[in-house]
Amino acid sequence: MFIGHFGVGLASKPAAKQTSLGTLLLASQFIDLLWPTLLLVGLESVEIAPGSTKLTPLEFIHYPISHSLLAVVGWSILFAAVYFALRRTARPALICGALVASHWFLDALTHKPDLLLYPGGTTKIGLGLWNHPAIAIILEEGNELIGSTLTSGDEDIILVTHEGISLRFSEQDTRPLGRSSQGVMGIRPVEGDYVVGLAKVTDDCTLLVASENGLGKRTAFEEYRKQSRDCRGAQDQS
Questions:
Q1: What is the 8-class DSSP label of residue 102?
Q2: Which site from 26, 53, 177, 179 is most exposed, i.e. has the minimal number of CB atoms within 10 Å?
Q3: Which of 53-57, 66-70, 124-128 reaches the highest mean pLDDT?
């Protein structure tokens, strides 16, 4: 769920302009940073159990200090109080506290029932979307399927974004993964941009790129320089 938590932290930046992005991301991930510390000192426990859910093999046995609802509310109040003591600004402090608290509610969507309401309680919460990968991946990343194509395993692919950025890379850079996995990053769009199309590079063919105001441009595939995946790409159409 890391990406989902980071997404909430990033989305909060316009509402907390005085607060550094690092602080907002720290708040959104605070619970998951606290959890391994408690594991190391023996106060909480987890087991590796392949098949526990379709997306993660972790079986969360005991983690009421970091992940029960009451404890998370307490941590959020503490985080907000420390921020306010250091910065003396109420609004950003409240936003940071809310980010800490949001962690539990996002986890409640994806975890199977293993989140306590309070330490020592017996009621456990969790919708279990980790057992429904297609839904969980959309929720975690804000993803939407934009296309698919059959490939041989050694072809080149071009991804194009809404802002006219394109990236050509070899599909050999993307290792084969299981059906329920999240996949790997192809192109890394800038903030606010997103992928709108993909194409398989074919010899002696061209790529037609059209804009929303009706302009179109046809370019030979040979003019698209091959790059490594997981980078920004190059301007294709402005």
A1: H
A2: 179
A3: 66-70
